[in-house]
Amino acid sequence: MYTQLDIETHFEGKLKIAYLNHPDTMNALTKPSLTELKEFVNECSNDPNVRCVAISGRGRAFCSGQNLDDAFVQGNDHQDQDIIRKIVTDYYNPLVLEITRCKKPVVALVNGPAVGAGAMLALICDFVLATDKAYFSQAFSNIGLIPDTGGTYFLPKLLGRQLANYLAFTGKKLSAEESKSYGLVAEVFSEEEFNSKSMEILEKVSNMPTIGLKLTKKAFANSYNNTLKEQLELEGDLQQKAAETEDFKEGVTAFLEKRKPNYKGK
User: Fold this and answer.
1) How far apart are CA 101 and CA 207, in angstroms?
2) Which of 74, 134, 145, 256 is 20 to 30 A from 115 (CA-CA)?
3) Strands (E), 124-178
4) Whole-number Å distance between alpha carbons of 149 and 191
């Protein structure tokens, strides 16, 4: 089904990982790969057997951004002034919404450079795990473009106006450790430990109370636009929904029985 992406399932179907599989172009994004990645996230979101989703890259890079050869086939599309708008609205925007609205945690496993749309593909995920050899660059300005893939929405919120402007204007490369210090990356591991340490975290998330995590994502997303009063009301509503899940009952029972909970994601 997936011709551009290799999809591997780990931990008895609780975790699914999509690997961008164009190492010859440092996993540059094409219209087919963007479409298939969106479909993959959608399927994972609606599959009750999947409890955690991850995105990574094959080879030495996570993602080098948009494949310009794919955008401008044979140079003819340079005459089409709307070609970039079409790519953004038809391919990138649907993927951003699919990832941010996914009912399951979506984790970026950044195994190498993440540039332009590739950097934002990682940063729109729920959190980022990176190898110490990775770097992030908002390279859009290098070809006269603005940050897309949610960049103009998320970067000022993640970094503040000053730093968002600085990185967007200069395209400066941030190391994985620098990115962590700015709050863009959750954990950084050596290349030797990256796979094993990342899988430990993904396995843990895969076994957490999935509905509670989904509701947490919803609460955080709404906090960008809500007043404090609105957010407190939302917290009450979502907390009640969480309290009605089987996992909440299991969590309380396990606590009282002094044992490890066995969450089912229900």
Assistant:
1) 20
2) 74
3) 127-131, 135-137, 173-175
4) 27
